[in-house]
Structures are given as structure tokens and as C-alpha cells.
Amino acid sequence: MNQTITPELRRWIIEQAAAGFPPEAVVAAMKASGWMEDVAAEALETTLQAHLQEISAGQTIRPLPAGPARTSGSPAKDADAAVPEIDLSASPREIDLGDRKVRVLAALRSPRVVVIGGLLSDAECEGLIELARPRLARSLTVQTATGGEELNPDRTSSGTFFNRGETALVSAIEERIARLVQWPVTHGEGLQVLNYRRGAEYKPHYDYFDPAEPGTPTILKRGGQRVGTLVMYLNEPGQGGGTTFPDVGLEVAPQRGHAVFFSYARPHPSTRTLHGGAPVLAGEKWVATKWLRQREFR
After folding, report:
1. What is the value of pTM for the model shown?
2. Which of 52, 146, 196, 242 has the greatest number of CB atoms lying within 10 Å of its CB?
3. pLDDT tens digit sequence for 6-20
4. How far apart are CA 131 and CA 133, in angstroms?
């Protein structure tokens, strides 16, 4: 199998080293993404040696050009290595999505987290809540040992899924998300609306499917790995209920209509995308979640 060491891969290796990840962790992450161990080790060694030489010579590495937006049609040839992305190359305070302008409130590079203001209107938030309310059931999680679903004591919310395009409201939101993160609507799972009562939470977890679990190959048949997550806040609990990222000490407060987006290029803890829903301490919390896949989700 031919495995090419691309500029994107070299840049990722340098970013991991700069973030403090040891060489064995970087090689392990590459192996988890399908790289042969000897190729991964060679890529790591040659990339870091070249980088040190450039630093010694006073050179800098130029940023890679941004790829074209992909909101419809077939994914790019290297889609399995790509992730959804919000274009922040011009450091915008506002992004025009055609039917709505949204605000960029905060962004992290590692993990790649972007907080967006005003993604949904108050009417859209209420509409999703009212559509979901009569359909709520105890939330399940994916059972990676078998590829099925199970009750999980770490997740104490109630929720429901909507099929893609199930209603005009759901379709409009899905199209807006696709434009925001430059990823086809077809490559997203159905929108999930969740309700957290007082005391409910979702303990820290990863959204990708663990490659080491026996049920993962079955799960991946429907559209490949998850590569991105968008959490939209439909209301504001009285207290608590933030989205936490323990690896970087970040907590995003639930503000109605706002959203937090994060992506993960590989199914490995090195993405630093461990996250959770903090316990609701007063009132209740409503969120809508969109998970994005590598390929068309069926």
C-alpha cells in the first residue's frame, strides 16, 4: 500500500510536537488512522528533522492554502483525511450564511473548537423544542462492542432523532450548518434534540468511534467515522449545563441560539476532543446536536 507523506501530514506532525505530545503518541495516532508503523515512524523522524533545520536557518513554514468549500455533491478524493471546517482564515467577526449572519465568538486551534453566536433564531429554537417534546425517550449511546445502542449511566438525558430533511425547519437548519462547516448535508447524521432535566449530565467522552472496538466496522459502514460535532443551544438553563472540554479547561456556557463546533481528524485522544455536558443545576437544558461523517450517511 502506497502511503504518501503529504504537506498536510507534515504540518499535523509539527502541530502535535508543538502541543507536547510524545513521539510514541503521534505514531500511535497515525497507526489508528491506518498508517503502517514503519512509515509513520519515518514520517515523524524526517518531518521533525527538517523542521529543526528550518528553525535553525531562521525559516518559517507557510500556512497551507484553504481547500474549497464542499456543501454539496461528492466529497473530495481525500475526504477520509478531511474534516468539516469553519473558514476563519480572514479572522471574521461575522459570517454570512446566506439566510442568516452568525458571529464568531471564540476559537481554539488545538482542539479545533469554534463558538458561534446566533446560529439559530429564537423561533427556530422553540420550533425544534416543540417538535421534539412529544417524541422524547431516554437517550441511548452507540454500543461499539456490537454496533448497536445501549443505555449508558454516563448519559442521563432524554432525546429524539429527526431524519435528514424531515421537516422544513430541520432542512433549513441542516443546509445552514452545511454552509457554515463546508460539509455536505448528506454527510451528516440526523439532527438529535436532547433535553436535560435538573441533575442530568453527559460525562466526558469522545464522539468518534473507537477503532479498537469490535462493533466499530459495522458502525462505519453507514458513513465512515464521525469527524465533527455541532452542539446548538435551544434554551438557557438557570444554572450549569455547559459544554466542557477537560483537556484544555474550557467550558462553553449554554446561550440560546449559540453553538459550539469541534472537529477531529482522527479517532484518537490526541485530538483533545474529550468533552461532556456538565450537570444542570437549575432549570432544564435543551440542545440540538449534529454529528458529521466522513462520507454519505445512510
Report:
1. 0.72
2. 196
3. 888 888 888 887 776
4. 6
Name the pairing type of β-strands 259-263 and 112-117. Answer: antiparallel
User: SS3 of 295, please?
Assistant: coil
Cα torsion for 297, 220, 115, 108, to the nearest 10°? -140
Length of the chain: 298
Q: What share of the chain is helix, strand, coil (3-state, %, to 5)?
A: 30, 25, 45
The 3-state DSSP class for residue 146 equals: coil
Cell numbers for 218: 459495522
Q: What are 51-92's pLDDT values in tens digits?
A: 776 665 554 433 333 333 333 333 333 344 589 999 999 999
Cis peptide before 254 (omega within 30 of 0): no
d(CA 171, CA 124): 12
Could you tell me which of 251, 297, 295, 258 has the C-alpha nearest to residue 276? 251
Whether 266 and 40 have beta carbons less than 8 Å apart is answered as no
In 182-259, alpha helices (H):
216-220
**Between the CA of residue 292 and those of 1, 28, 94, 123, 231, what are the distances in Å?**
28, 24, 23, 25, 11
- Residue 237 makes CB contacts below 8 A (sequence gap 6+) with 196, 254, 280, 281, 282, 283, 284, 285
Which whole-number Å values give the CA distances from 203 to 12, 200, 250, 277, 278, in the listed order?
28, 10, 15, 6, 7
Q: Is 298 exposed, middle or buried (0-12, 13-18, 19+ CB in 10 A)?
A: exposed
Between the CA of residue 30 and those of 83, 98, 129, 157, 222, what are the distances in Å? 16, 38, 41, 34, 23
DSSP 232-252: EE-S--SEE--EEEGGGTEEE
